[in-house]
Structures are given as C-alpha cells and as structure tokens.
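Form 7-S
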Amino acid sequence: MRPHKNKYWCIPPKENAEFVACMEDVLDVYELPYNILRPVVCMDEKPYQLLGESREPLPMRQGNDKKTDSEYVREGTCSIFVFTEPLGGFRHVNARNQRTAVDWAEEIKYLADVCYPDAEKIILVLDNLNTHKISSLYKRFPPAEARRIARRLEVHYTPKHGSWLNIAEIELNVMTSQCLNRRVDDLEKLRCELAVWEVNRNERSSTINWHFTNNQARTKLVSLYPKIEIHNN
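Output:
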C-alpha cells in the first residue's frame, strides 16, 4: 500500500454506448490493410513549455558529466502537432505558438497538399477536440478551398476518455523521449530539432503495429459495453 502515491489515468465510463461505438469505429480503421491511396493517419497535439538556462551549463570533461543547473527560465509555451501513418512508417511534426482552429486548419492543409498530394482519401483518426472539426477549415480558408480539403478527409474520432486509442500518442511518447529530453528555449530552435528528428525517423520507416481488435475489446473490456435487456412483449 502506498497511499501517498497517485497516478492519473483516462478511465473510460462503464456500460457506455457512445464510448464503445467510437472505440469500435476506430478499431475497425486500425484493421484496414495498408493502402497508399487511402492512408490511415493519426493526429495528436501536446503543449510544450519552452525553457531557457538560468546559468550556462558546465561542459562535459574527462571523468565529469555535463552539469546543468536545476533552475531554469520560462520562455513561454507552444503546441506541437503530430501526424503519424502507422503502417506507412511516415510522420510529420510541427510546433506552433497556439493550437487554435486556424492552426489546426493550416496543419490539415499541409497534410493533404504536401504530405499526401496523391491520396484519394486521408483516413484521419484524432480526438474530438473542439478545434478538430471540419468547420475549422472554414475559419481559415474560403468556402471552395475549405470544401476541397474536407473532401480529401474521412474523419474518425476517438471516444472521450479514450486517448489511449490514438496511435499518435505512441508517436508523441517516442518523440518526447528522443527529441524533447532537454531544454529548448526558442520556438524556431524547437522546430529545427523536430524537423531533424522527423527526417531521421522517416528514413528508418519506423512503423507502429497495433494488435488490439474489436473481438478482443468485446472480451477484455466487457464492462464498458451496455448490458442489453430484452423484454418480451
């Protein structure tokens, strides 16, 4: 027993039809075979605190590790957008000052026109954040352009309290451990760091294999499914 410790977790609601409907929809998407014309892309974002050094770190020397002062200077916050194609081994990351509807719309346009210009349809999995809507495209682009981009998308939302169903979270964790394990004090510097990491990881074509299926969910997560009572008339 360790009553002084507390872990925060996304706890899904029990017997919730809305949750399981969204979950099964996303899991169906993850079972689709790889199709270069219909890539499955997962999107997520995270806030990031820019941090500067309060004192110049002491460089590493023979027999001595590099020493960094425990104090730091807050240099503002930003938001990191991550798109990952689990079966294609491709990802794109970018950092922005904010995470508004306009920011999301611009990232989606880049995804459609630069990352996947030849795709017939981009199957997009993401959480149901208020900015993650087709309507956000209309807040940034003229109607014809917004509609053009929207037609390129097939959107599937993870359920509330179901962020663990978004494969982009796995990519975010990898990025955090490999690229954000040190202090970065400037947005442009952060963008450069992310760009280098993106190129290196894409060159390795690192894929993510998702194994959890609807059949498994119906057995292992049975408490999440509504209990159906049949009344004879």
